[in-house]
Automatic annotation (TrEMBL):
<comment type="similarity">
    <text>Belongs to the cytidylate kinase family. Type 1 subfamily.</text>
</comment>
<keyword id="KW-0547">Nucleotide-binding</keyword>
<keyword id="KW-0808">Transferase</keyword>
<dbReference type="GO" id="GO:0036431">
    <property type="term" value="F:dCMP kinase activity"/>
</dbReference>
<keyword id="KW-0067">ATP-binding</keyword>
<dbReference type="InterPro" id="IPR003136">
    <property type="entry name" value="Cytidylate_kin"/>
</dbReference>
<dbReference type="GO" id="GO:0005737">
    <property type="term" value="C:cytoplasm"/>
</dbReference>
<dbReference type="GO" id="GO:0006220">
    <property type="term" value="P:pyrimidine nucleotide metabolic process"/>
</dbReference>
<dbReference type="GO" id="GO:0005524">
    <property type="term" value="F:ATP binding"/>
</dbReference>
<feature type="binding site">
    <location>
        <begin position="10"/>
        <end position="18"/>
    </location>
    <ligand>
        <name>ATP</name>
    </ligand>
</feature>
<dbReference type="InterPro" id="IPR011994">
    <property type="entry name" value="Cytidylate_kinase_dom"/>
</dbReference>
<keyword id="KW-0963">Cytoplasm</keyword>
<dbReference type="Pfam" id="PF02224">
    <property type="entry name" value="Cytidylate_kin"/>
</dbReference>
<keyword id="KW-0418">Kinase</keyword>
<dbReference type="InterPro" id="IPR027417">
    <property type="entry name" value="P-loop_NTPase"/>
</dbReference>
<feature type="domain" description="Cytidylate kinase">
    <location>
        <begin position="6"/>
        <end position="204"/>
    </location>
</feature>
<protein>
    <recommendedName>
        <fullName>Cytidylate kinase</fullName>
        <ecNumber>2.7.4.25</ecNumber>
    </recommendedName>
</protein>
Length: 213
């Protein structure tokens, strides 16, 4: 598996992060949640009291990211979600973080999850998964995740925020959220974590077997 890159994309709360982490562990590959890069950038901008849509500030904060920023405890929640989506729509921010992601994957191979891994970061990845689920199910999962983390949240508000995030991600002019033409689409709406992982692993192995023939 050395050198193998697997791209896992999809909208918020579809389960792509959980799948990507488990696939990486199963296949002995490094794992990178690329969304943390944008979340950390958005958080740094918010820390400065600036609108995350401020392109010059957002670019500067993206270039100033440190490993410690990715380990911060306040990278989740609706404020962090929307800030991440806002900075991710800025071309200069995406350019600043693109080579970082590519370097990570090229080093020894990796499983990377995000929103443009299969379309922009690694368009030639031999395996691409696009993980999705209904808005209602994704909102339920995010609501439960927030509650488990001790964050009070209204379920309907969470669903509205996910719809807004989807629209912002899908309609941004740079690297909009969409499946790569050769991506394997996995709808996890009716799947629990174990079933989703088993299905994803089977899809990955089937694609790898096909590519090796």
């Amino acid at each position: 598996m050395n050198g193998l890159v697997i791209a896992v994309d999809g909208p918020a709360a579809a389960g792509k992060g959980t799948l990507a982490r488990r696939l990486a562990a199963e296949l002995g590959l490094p794992y990178l949640d690329t969304g943390l890069l944008y979340r950390a950038t958005g958080r740094r901008v918010l820390d400065r009291g600036v609108d995350p849509r401020d392109a010059p500030v957002a670019e500067a904060e993206a270039r100033a990211l440190t490993p410690a920023d990715l380990a911060r405890a306040n990278l989740r929640g609706s404020e962090a979600d929307m800030a991440a989506s806002a900075v991710a729509a800025i071309p200069a921010v995406r350019a600043a973080l693109l080579e970082w992601q590519r370097d990570f994957g090229r080093r020894h191979g990796a499983v990377l999850d995000g929103r443009d891994i299969g379309t922009v970061v690694f368009p030639d990845a031999p395996v691409k998964l696009f993980v999705t689920a209904s808005v209602e199910e994704r909102a339920r999962r995010r609501w439960l995740e927030l509650r488990a983390g001790g964050i009070a949240a209204d379920r309907q508000q969470v669903q509205a925020e996910i719809r807004d995030r989807d629209a912002q991600d899908a309609n941004r002019p740079v690297a909009p959220l969409r499946p790569a033409p050769d991506a394997l689409v996995l709808d996890t709406t009716s799947l629990d974590a174990e079933a989703a992982f088993a299905t994803a692993l089977a899809l990955v192995r089937e694609r790898l077997d096909t590519a090796s023939r």
